Amino acid sequence: MTHDARRYAALPSPFAMKRGGELHGARVAYETWGTLSEARDNAVLLLTGLSPSAHAASNADDASEGWWEAMIGPGKAIDTSRWFVICVNSLGSDKGSTCAASINPATGEPYRLDFPELSLEDVANAAQVVVQGLGIEQLACLIGCSMGGMSALAYMVLHPGSVRAHISVDTAPQAQPFAIAIRSLQREAIRLDPHWNKGRYSDGSYPSDGMSIARKLGVITYRSAMEWNGRFARIRLDPERRDDNPFGLEFEVESYLEGHAQRFVHTFDPNSYLYLSRASDWFDIAEYGNGSIMEGLKRIRIEKAMVIGVSTDILFPLEQQEQIAEGLRAAGAAVDFVALDSPQGHDAFLVDIPNYSRAIGGFLSQL
Amino acid sequence: MTHDARRYAALPSPFAMKRGGELHGARVAYETWGTLSEARDNAVLLLTGLSPSAHAASNADDASEGWWEAMIGPGKAIDTSRWFVICVNSLGSDKGSTCAASINPATGEPYRLDFPELSLEDVANAAQVVVQGLGIEQLACLIGCSMGGMSALAYMVLHPGSVRAHISVDTAPQAQPFAIAIRSLQREAIRLDPHWNKGRYSDGSYPSDGMSIARKLGVITYRSAMEWNGRFARIRLDPERRDDNPFGLEFEVESYLEGHAQRFVHTFDPNSYLYLSRASDWFDIAEYGNGSIMEGLKRIRIEKAMVIGVSTDILFPLEQQEQIAEGLRAAGAAVDFVALDSPQGHDAFLVDIPNYSRAIGGFLSQL
């Protein structure tokens, strides 16, 4: 038996959003691992990609495997015998935090598209409420993966002095047009599904087709062509696994995508997906530097950072991690830049555990 | 005034298809430029990508600009004062050739999904009927771009001795899983559109949404992230050009994709798109070499070849053009391999005219 390990932090009410609008009675879900030291100086905050929950690893309350299970635990790269680790479910995500599927206290109905415009700055501010609520003045380290890496940049620029060290994983200082195009098309697939119905879907009339296309496009861009050449090549499905529809599944890679889509479609709220996806497009550290990425990053004051990227990432290409490393260095931090050749593309941080463990474990052990 | 410059070649009836099935009373459309020499030894055949018509350039009958206008004409890289150039519309394409939208003589109704399974070998065989019908025993050069490059490999392996020289442009000896995944998702977007209706759509009930998603995904993968960084960056649309729909267009890159989609959706028959897309996934030169790409290519007997590819092409990556070059070389041809750094991705052959002109013009001038 596993239990819900989530805790909840109430956000100040009203909670003002960056682009206008406010939330009343909102909360974010989080989980923790390890023990906060008396000096409260061993806290590590983890901000996630678009879809994961706060359940990054198993813990006493929930023994089920987390999404970064191999990285977090006693003796692992993020060593919970030393660090007090907090993972926050993004504001706007439906894994326990207030989101478009939550009840709007003003109407008693779900927000749906009445949820205010969401930005990663709001995600960062909500996470900071959790940290503050735990009595932590300064994080020993802030780790952000993928979208969470952008939320982390927002956190540091909005809360000067709140972070000592930072680990930036497979992320970017702003969305480039290729990533915007991909995410825009994912959103369009959902919006064009007649069952989306301008956000007013139900379990019985649900935009499964749009979500399926969005997820498949996600998986295609999260992985890499190189990995798939070795993994799937041109292998056909056994005849009994093919589907009978015209132009239906025939190749192993198609079945792999179908499996991913099936597992995702009903486990993520479509409207929440739209909000978080657009927030990723909007984020731009250059907004804090008069239009310059470098100037924006130079406003971040931390002591040390490690910036990790992968040469096979097409969504957050390596030169974007180089920009982050350069900018943080120009701001005065001691920065390690780690360029990996993992074949798994953007998702390498979830798959290439040996390389990410070595880098992250090595960095944390020297703090 | 421009006139239809198309000519038509009747295919043998029945025309047997590679995967079984046959066509009766089928034809393919083609256009020509220049004059066939008395010795009939100056013919250049051009096989196209998935969507272009046979109208590769303006000519006496149709003054409108063709899809490779800058490359074909007197004094241009494909110099029509010397060469007799033929461009064939692929069998299965709706630009004049028999396709899924054509009338099935057995029923008097459009074929729709009763069109037999289409392969690029069928496309190649239909093109060869045109060449034969013009009394040409051997092509001076066979040029194939993108999907047409795969059709060209099929042509050469199926018709030994029919080609002296070959120019392979941005193509592959087989579809890799990344390309299959992209095309599968494009087909799925069309198939999931309720208006597709298992192929039984009409002008009034047409799968526009599915075609739009398919086209946008195509354009995303035909270009490159690098080009878009320079071209679109994070430029927003003027407020009056945004759409009012929730999560509607906001960035310039989204508007660019929308424009491409709008121009395409009603100018290509959706069922024909499905057939040609799947034919691209199916093609595999290794079928002619006991499962080996190299052995398959080694069965192609030509004198000279030029193989061109682009480092920014994510759909047909450069290593696939290297394979073609190696294989043709191993088969005994003198092969020039040209690796370009054009930023435009797979579509570079349509855009980077200076580099493609220089390469193709140089090669042809030495024949």
UniProtKB/TrEMBL annotation, chains A, B:
<keyword id="KW-0963">Cytoplasm</keyword>
<feature type="active site">
    <location>
        <position position="346"/>
    </location>
</feature>
<dbReference type="GO" id="GO:0005737">
    <property type="term" value="C:cytoplasm"/>
</dbReference>
<feature type="binding site">
    <location>
        <position position="215"/>
    </location>
    <ligand>
        <name>substrate</name>
    </ligand>
</feature>
<protein>
    <recommendedName>
        <fullName>Serine O-succinyltransferase</fullName>
        <ecNumber>2.3.1.-</ecNumber>
    </recommendedName>
</protein>
<feature type="active site">
    <location>
        <position position="313"/>
    </location>
</feature>
<feature type="active site" description="Nucleophile">
    <location>
        <position position="146"/>
    </location>
</feature>
<keyword id="KW-0808">Transferase</keyword>
<keyword id="KW-0012">Acyltransferase</keyword>
<dbReference type="GO" id="GO:0006535">
    <property type="term" value="P:cysteine biosynthetic process from serine"/>
</dbReference>
<dbReference type="GO" id="GO:0009092">
    <property type="term" value="P:homoserine metabolic process"/>
</dbReference>
<keyword id="KW-0198">Cysteine biosynthesis</keyword>
<comment type="subunit">
    <text>Homodimer.</text>
</comment>
<feature type="site" description="Important for acyl-CoA specificity">
    <location>
        <position position="183"/>
    </location>
</feature>
<dbReference type="InterPro" id="IPR008220">
    <property type="entry name" value="HAT_MetX-like"/>
</dbReference>
<keyword id="KW-0028">Amino-acid biosynthesis</keyword>
<comment type="similarity">
    <text>Belongs to the AB hydrolase superfamily. MetX family.</text>
</comment>
<feature type="domain" description="AB hydrolase-1">
    <location>
        <begin position="43"/>
        <end position="350"/>
    </location>
</feature>
<dbReference type="Pfam" id="PF00561">
    <property type="entry name" value="Abhydrolase_1"/>
</dbReference>
<feature type="region of interest" description="Important for substrate specificity">
    <location>
        <begin position="49"/>
        <end position="52"/>
    </location>
</feature>
<dbReference type="GO" id="GO:0004414">
    <property type="term" value="F:homoserine O-acetyltransferase activity"/>
</dbReference>
<dbReference type="GO" id="GO:0160210">
    <property type="term" value="F:L-serine O-succinyltransferase activity"/>
</dbReference>
<dbReference type="InterPro" id="IPR000073">
    <property type="entry name" value="AB_hydrolase_1"/>
</dbReference>
<dbReference type="GO" id="GO:0009086">
    <property type="term" value="P:methionine biosynthetic process"/>
</dbReference>
<comment type="function">
    <text>Transfers a succinyl group from succinyl-CoA to L-serine, forming succinyl-L-serine.</text>
</comment>
<dbReference type="InterPro" id="IPR029058">
    <property type="entry name" value="AB_hydrolase_fold"/>
</dbReference>
<comment type="pathway">
    <text>Amino-acid biosynthesis; L-cysteine biosynthesis; L-cysteine from L-serine: step 1/2.</text>
</comment>
<feature type="binding site">
    <location>
        <position position="347"/>
    </location>
    <ligand>
        <name>substrate</name>
    </ligand>
</feature>
